[in-house]
Amino acid sequence: MVVSGHSAATLAGIAAFKRGGNLVDAMIAASAALAAVVGQATSIGGDGFLLFQDGKTGRSIGLNASGVAPQAATPEKFPEGMNVHGPLAPVVPGLVRAWDEMHRRYGRLAWATLFDDAIAIAEAYPVSHSLAERAPAMQARLAADPGCAELYLPGGRPIAPGDALRQPALAATLRMIAAQGADAFYRGETAQRIAAFFETCGGLITASDLAAYAPLWVEPVATEFRGHRVEVMPPNSYGLLLLMQLNALAGLDAAKLTADPARRAGYQMSALKAAVAHGRRFIADPAAVPDAAAGLLSVEMTATLQQAVREPASKQPVRNTGGTACVLIADDEGNAVSLVQSVFNPFGACLRDPATGILFNNRIQGFTHRPGEANSVGPGRRPAHTLCPVLVRRDGKLRFVLGTPGGISQTLTIVQVLHQLIEAGRDVAAAVDAPRWCNTRSGEFLIEPAFPQDAIAALAEMGHAARIADDPYFYGSAKAVEILPSGTLAGAGDRHREAAALGI
After folding, report:
1. Lowest mean pLDDT among 144-148, 373-377, 443-447
2. Domain range spanning residue 226?
3. How many angstroms separate the CA atoms of 310 and 289, rounded?
4. Taking a C-beta distance cutoff of 8 angstroms, is the pair 236, 66 a contact?
5. What is the C-alpha to C-alpha distance for residues 378 and 283, in angstroms, rounded to an integer?
6. For residues 296 and 289, is the Cβ–Cβ distance under 8 A?
7. Spatial CA neighbour of 383 closest among 90, 107, 163, 142
8. What is the pLDDT of residue 358?
């Protein structure tokens, strides 16, 4: 079963299986295809986190392939705050090295065979609706960068549905990676081209930064929720904020949450605010917060969160932003993976190298420019990071594989999907399709029109300001795979965007 953020990527994963590949081969093929087809959300100039269950051992492991700050990235470089766009905004990309690490350990097919679909997509493919929807809103930023303007503003207008997205430079870069391995990107000709590009445009990433990059193998962190074990990535991922929200809601009766959709949303909103208020400052480079999980998942913190959910809601907004894509796969051998990959904001740094075709991330803004804090920017450090893959177990066996794009709203979207799966008892299709609430860049709460008509008033009584809106961007694009007790696999992709689920 393959579920991803675009049908082309899902088909690429299925094709890898049909060629005799295993789950990791399919993951790489699908991930590379995503990086070619939905560049506003993910690219080989971005990074990722993944959780992987090895079917042979039944154990899960995480791979933190978030990018690191270049050696030249010090607080003094950002006197006015962290850059959002332009040549100072990217961190060292991690996605290609993540593919390499997974393939070396677990891959079956030859590396060079895994990129055919991505290369074909890069050569020419109908423009993604999601990409086309974001281009007009980012037109001024895209126009300011020659590489972005060339690709995304043909003839001076935003690329539109029905257009062909042609990326010959990216196709050539992918061919080089296929032929020479990940070292082509981090140590070879592509690395030299990337370094030359940043030197020319006044950026910070150098050839030595690329050569030194390595992802981190990590143990997942988890909490128990209604008889299920929910596993996420440790910091620098926001995964702990998801677990804190579940711990906060676990103090409420499950039937009470299920009975009233509006009040359930209100409790979930309160849980989000409490988790962020108490936990966000501890989401930082792993070396800076080695004991974060123990403190944030402690009995004392859980009691504090559960009390906060019962009290009138905080007025402090939780702002959201992000551009992300996901690949979820499970097979009949007990293997499973949730990979979330990203350039962060839509079109990342709005910085594209015409020579390599690479669009770069703007993940540097995950840091603070203030020195001396856990999340201060510094050479080789990893920023606080929104990406949040999820695995869920019941009685020791894998039950669900989950993921969604959406910045910090990845955590609140998964909380809502878990309610539908665990507390309401719905299948993955119904759980993903159920009406949701979300937060926006300003921190405003939106609820979908399918909520009861009195929902706004009910939320106001609980201290939450919200409005009804149908916004396909901020509601995320939840994806899920369910492993049924019989062993049958079921998958679901979100109606909000272009997700596609397919099995063989």
Report:
1. 443-447
2. 218-321+405-479
3. 29
4. yes
5. 15
6. no
7. 90
8. 98
Does the pLDDT at position 322 exceed 70? no
CB atoms within 10 A of CB 283: 27
The amino acid present at 393, given as its one-letter code, is R
Which residues, other chains included, contact 322 with Cβ-Cβ below 8 Å and sequence gap of 6+?
A: 342, 344, 345, 386, 405, 406, 407, 408, 409, 410
Q: How far apart are the first and last CA of the chain?
A: 7
DSSP one-letter code for 392: E
* 486-504 per-position pLDDT tens digit: 999 999 998 777 889 999 8
The number of folded domains in the chain is: 2
pLDDT in tens, 55-97: 999 999 999 999 999 999 999 999 999 999 999 999 999 999 9
Same-domain check for residues 60 and 178:
yes
- Helix, strand, or coil here: 362? coil
When mean pLDDT is compared across 266-280, 282-296, 362-376, 489-503, the lowest value belongs to 489-503
> Which of 488, 504, 482, 473 lies closest to 5, judged by CA?
473
Residues facing 394 on adjacent strands = 228, 397
How many other β-carbons are positioned within 10 Å of the β-carbon of residue 332? Answer: 12
Can you state the angle between helices 95-106 and 23-37, rounded to 10 degrees?
160
Q: Please list, in sequence order, all residues whose beta carbon lies within 8 angstroms of the beta carbon of residue 390, skipping any fewer than 6 positions away.
A: 51, 230, 231, 232, 239, 242, 338, 400, 401, 402, 403, 414
Q: Binning pLDDT at 50, 70 and 90, where does residue 432 land?
A: very high
Question: Structure tokens of 23?
Answer: 């789950």
- In the numeric block, the tokens 């006015």 are attached to 80
Among residues 367, 451, 446, which one has the least CA distance to residue 413?
446
Per-residue pLDDT, 323:
67
How many angstroms separate the CA atoms of 119 and 136, rounded?
26
Instruction: Tell me what the mean pLDDT of segment 164-168 comes to.
Output: 97
Let me know if residue 380 belongs to a domain. no
Which residue's entry shows tokens 């281009």?
A: 135
At residue 442 the predicted structure's pLDDT band, cuts being 50, 70 and 90, is confident
Q: pLDDT averaged over the chain?
A: 95
Judge whether 360 lies within some domain.
yes
Tokens of 247: 């711990």
Q: Do 224 and 211 have their domain in common?
A: no
Report the predicted TM-score, pTM, of the whole model to 2 decimal places.
Answer: 0.96
What is the rounded CA–CA span in Å between residue 248 and residue 106? Answer: 37
- Residue 227 Ramachandran class (φ > 0 left, ψ -120 to 50 alpha, else beta): left
Q: Is 7 helix (H, G, I), strand (E, B) or coil?
A: helix
**Together in a domain, 184 and 112:** yes
